[in-house]
Specification:
Helix content: 55-70%
Number of strands: 5
Distance between the termini: 71 Å
Radius of gyration: 24 Å
Order of helices and strands: HHHHHHHHHHHHHHHHEHEHHHEEE
């Protein structure tokens, strides 16, 4: 029986996890991994980042993720780069395992259950409305791990073992408090939806919770000008600056789940109807909370909490239920239909990811040399400069053509002056860094026109002794390495 279960369940889920991994790609050190991977490396080697550790350590105080990763590497002896690959794949596997378990509760037909899993596998990098999130990130992010834990908790609730969800949600909370809080809210509404009579209970809960949706306390503190400046760079934080199609992406799923609830109830599919009702109630409640939090200027300090992130879980279930319905009514047991389904959805998402990371390998595995000039320079710096080196580079380097949003700190493993893109997000979470961030970014204004005197000014004011500049470099710098686009130089 164990062998039969392995072949019937474990191997197919592993197949879809591999397919999802290959479709979404793998890009360590990109986007938010500039904070998380950097923090893990600092835990493993405290001699790194002597000049700028506040730009990742302060934000990580609310999470045990970096410490857990560092301890795991220390205990197992697995190199960090491969531990990250393993952690990413395990997160995806658990997400899909939980989705399959959930699909078994709401769909009777095996083809619908597997199609639900296949759709989630293909849609892992589906953008979530205007939140600047995907269903899952292309690198090991605590959000991926927490998503898996939340979905496992939901599957235990559907199994009727609600108390099993508690330790899963507690673990999620210590890894990523904000996302886990949304997961707890989701689990609450799903639990209530499966308690008869569901409709009356949900209406009562929703009306009572909405009346206490506004938090109190530190949120009324007056924000500093530098914090405001940083916040203004993150337009996706502000719901009322979203475009019409981003609003559509937020509200349309609620309408779709209302329709699903109505149709499922009419056809006697009780479990599907109850799940849709729970998701609908969760979505309406969290949308109300988000609109309250983001409307008055007095609550502006709450903006970095990004309450619209609640849509991530809704998008997962939108993909899951859509896949199940496609499997039930279109795919059935026809092999050729499944082949077209996988080719269209996985191929389409693969093509989108190749456009996003056009200058980098689709799967960036450890030890494989990169053809990306930026990653080449980061690798040289990592292996050939002192660990206490303090670098300056274009504060907008993450958005440079061909850079693909790879973090200098995470991949070069050296300190740098604050940048004008990713560090702004850190400042919105840690306001006390605002003045330091603003001073450093202003000091690098006009970077493309910098000459030797400008680099010497950075060295005098901040202690910068190395720079990463475009090649050919400005005269007067002592350059130790270059490729066709970039040069690594010491400041005299």
């Amino acid at each position: 029986m164990r062998l039969s279960r392995i072949f019937r369940v474990f191997l197919p889920i592993t197949f879809f996890a591999v397919l999802g991994f290959l479709t979404m790609g793998y890009h360590p050190g990109s986007e938010d991994d500039g904070i998380y991977l950097t923090a893990v490396k600092a835990d493993l080697n405290p001699s790194l980042y002597p000049h700028d550790s506040n730009f990742f350590r302060l934000q990580m105080q609310a999470s045990l993720f970096d410490g857990a990763m560092a301890r795991g590497v220390g205990v197992t002896g697995i190199p960090l780069a491969w531990a990250e690959v393993l952690g990413q794949f395990l997160s995806l596997f658990l997400i899909l395992w939980a989705c399959f378990r959930i699909s078994q509760h709401i769909f009777i037909e095996p083809q619908a259950q597997w199609a639900a899993l296949a759709m989630v596998s293909a849609m892992l990098t589906l953008p979530v409305a205007g939140t600047a999130l995907y269903i899952a990130d292309q690198h090991l992010h605590p959000r991926n791990v927490v998503t898996a834990l939340i979905l496992l908790a939901i599957s235990r609730i559907l199994d009727g073992k609600r108390w099993h969800a508690v330790p899963l949600l507690v673990l999620a909370f210590v890894l990523h408090p904000i996302m886990s809080a949304l997961g707890i809210s989701f689990c609450f509404f799903v639990t209530v939806a499966f308690l008869p009579p569901a409709t009356a209970r949900l209406r009562a809960v929703e009306s009572s919770l909405a009346s206490v949706a506004v938090p109190l306390g530190w949120i009324f503190e007056q924000p500093t000008p530098s914090w405001r400046h940083a916040l203004d760079t993150r337009t996706y934080y502000n719901l009322y600056r979203w475009t019409w199609y981003e609003w559509l992406g937020a509200l349309a799923p609620l309408v779709l789940f209302w329709l699903l609830w109505w149709v499922a109830r009419k056809h006697g599919e009780t479990k599907l109807a109850r799940l849709a009702l729970g998701i609908l109630a969760y979505g309406i409640f969290q949308q109300i909370v988000a609109m309250i939090m983001l409307t008055p200027d007095t609550l502006v300090r709450l903006t970095p909490l990004q309450p619209m992130r609640f849509l991530q879980l809704i998008y997962i279930f939108m993909a899951l239920t859509a896949g199940g319905l496609v499997g039930r009514f279109l795919l059935k047991a026809k092999v050729w239909r499944w082949a077209i389904f996988l080719l269209v959805f996985n191929g389409g998402m693969f093509a989108v990811q190749r456009q996003l990371f056009a200058s980098s390998a689709h799967i960036e595995l450890p030890g494989v040399p990169s053809s990306n000039p930026w990653l080449q320079s980061f690798a040289w710096i990592r292996h050939n400069t002192p660990k206490d080196a303090y670098f300056a580079l274009d504060p907008q380097y993450l958005a440079a053509p061909g850079e693909d949003y790879h973090s200098f700190r995470a991949l070069a493993e050296r300190s740098q002056l604050a940048d004008g893109i990713k560090d702004t997000a850190v400042v919105t979470q840690v306001p006390e860094l605002g003045q330091e961030w603003e001073e450093q970014v202003k000091a690098q204004a006009g970077w493309s026109h910098f000459q030797l005197a400008d680099f010497e000014r950075l060295k005098k004011n901040f202690g910068v002794d190395w720079v990463l500049v475009s090649y050919p470099q400005p005269s007067g710098l002592n350059c130790r390495w270059h490729n066709a686009e970039l040069a690594v130089c010491q400041v005299p």
